[in-house]
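Format notes (please read before filing issues)

Several people have asked whether sequences and structure tokens are stored in separate files. They are not. Every record keeps both together, in the order shown below: the sequence lines, then the token lines. Line labels are part of the format and must not be stripped during preprocessing.
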Amino acid sequence: MSSESSEEGEADNNENIIEPLNRQARVHRQRRHLRVFFDVAVSDREFREKHRVSTIVLEHLVAWIGPELARRNNRGLPLSPRQRIQVFLHFLGTNGFYHDVASSHVITRTTVCNIVHEVCNVLFEHRNEVIFWPDNPEKLAEEFYKIERIPCVAGRVVDPC
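Then the structure lines:
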């Protein structure tokens, strides 16, 4: 009886070994990447309408925080830092939704969400380089009100480049 059970056990093991060999090979489809929407040349006016900043600001941001946004590998054909900043500026400039920005740049909503959060975090890390709090905020608020008629100013943002 033990010899029969050992033969059955060997037969089961042989079936387990043969079973993975009978599986069909996976079919890998070539991905279509339509990243031409980033590379299309647009005028500065069109760029400003879509992103609310000029192309000069984009280039400053790329030079300033671009290295921190670069991907360490090329897995899945990642967006370049310039493209990531463009998506971020488009999202902020249009006050739109993730799906609107995603369809405009032919990327997923999840990618837009991740990009917005990542760029915000990088900018937050550099906040002390561009946001300066005055020693006397009351005096600054008075000066801004006299010059520009803007009440309640507590700080200023300086161009990092």
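For reference, the curators noted about this record: The chain has two domains: 36-125, 129-161. The chain has a mean pLDDT of 77.
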